[in-house]
Amino acid sequence: MRTFAKNRNIRMITDFTHFLSSMGIVPKDTTDETISFEYNGLSYLFVSDKNDPYYIRLILPNIENINNADEIDVYKNINWYNNKFKAVKMSVVENSIWLSIEQFLYSRENSNNLFFRLMKILETVITEYRRGQNPAQ
Fold first, then answer.
1. How far apart are CA 62 and CA 119, in angstroms?
2. Are the CB atoms for 106 and 46 separated by under 8 Å?
3. Does the predicted TM-score (pTM) go above 0.90?
């Protein structure tokens, strides 16, 4: 099994960039710790941490503006989605709802399958959110 610890020079950003390339996705912007890209009409951010080579976070930022929303209803909805979906974190960031998944990835083996699954989970959550499938409302 190949691990990140044995190859510290191989970072998550490099592996995720290769994954995107295999999917025919061209990143919009890349830094040492982030990649922004679009897939199926959604704008994603992939975040790694140079201080923790095992950590990744995949984000769908700004899925909805909540400036005029009832705060209690917003947090009830967020709580419902956080409890329904494995590994998903829905949160409020500067008057906007964001979706994310955080993972620790210790092996490069099957990492492309994990990356794809994380994207699909976020896609599923945002689809349900946009359809208003939430009994907490």
1. 16
2. no
3. no
Cβ atoms of 63 and 98 within 8 Å: the answer is yes
- C-alpha distances (whole Å) from 58 to each of 1, 73, 80, 104, 130 are 24, 25, 20, 12, 19
At 110, the amino acid letter reads: N
Q: Which two tokens stand for residue 116?
A: 């794809």
As beta bridge partners, residue 34 has 47
The C-alpha angle with vertex 26 and arms to 17 and 42, in degrees rounded to 5, equals 100
Show the DSSP H helices in the chain as ranges: 12-22, 71-84, 111-131
In degrees, to the nearest 5, what angle opens at C-alpha 76 toward C-alphas 41 and 125?
25
CB atoms within 10 A of CB 78: 21
How does pLDDT run across 2-36, given as a tens digit for each residue? 555 444 434 788 889 999 999 999 999 988 889 99
